[in-house]
Amino acid sequence: MNSNKSIAISLGVFSALFFAVTFVFNRLMSVNGGHWTWNASLRFFWMLPILLVIVLLRKKLGILFQEIKQNLWKWILWSTVGFGLFYAPLTYATVHGASWLVASTWQVTIIAGMLLAPIINNTSFKSCISAKTLIFSLIILLGIGIMQFSQAESMEIGKIIIGTIPVLISAIAYPLGNRKMMKITNGRLGAIERTLGMTICSIPFWILISCWGISENAIPHTDQIFDTLIVAICSGVIATVLFFMATDRVRHNQSSLASVEASLSTEVVFTLIGEILILKIHVPNIYSLLGIGLVILGMTLHSLKK
Question: Contact at 8 Å (CB) between 114 and 137?
């Protein structure tokens, strides 16, 4: 299990690297005037044909459609939660704050995943999560809290709240949708097929989001279309498939699953580096760097935990 867990955590870290593209490019598109509804929906419209071609080449499309047909409404519900209610609020939040700060706040998903585990699996909290797992995750959350506090001096409280609440919704929706879909498919689908299935079943939600953008007279511009393609490939396809591969490996061990979800905390570091290089932001203050250090420490302890 230790070897399997190490591989799963490594996959999680690699997925975090590609997930970081989401935060940086969504912020870039917002700064350049791109409406958040198109930042969100275009990613999934791009993902659909890309994943469809891959699954067709793997000759697994028939198996996928059969799985969806057996539990259609569950697929639609949990795909909308896991992809729709995860990504739309997260994209909206990047309009109101630095991408590295949004990425750090989103790490609340680590605790959310652990708290949801007993409910999803109908077991006791103690049997799902060890004390070490909880402590290491709380270290990560302490780091996030310090980073948020460090920004309170330079931002209005209202803007912090508007930027934080959508991220908290996203942080709950992603592990909830992912864990529910793992339970429904029960290892019968590969990560790529599951990603395509969830993309297909969340498309009605993205059509509604697109209509929202149109109602506000927001039309995607050329740079926005190209940038969302990059996000779709890096984050929507590569990162999502890697993360699903990681969670599938340890889906029967709740403690290891929590550690893999905690590996996403490295997004904060990757996002900060990307924002400094691409958006030319200033290096965060000492308190923010301390918070980032605690996030890295918590992730390291997770990976070393037996």
Answer: yes
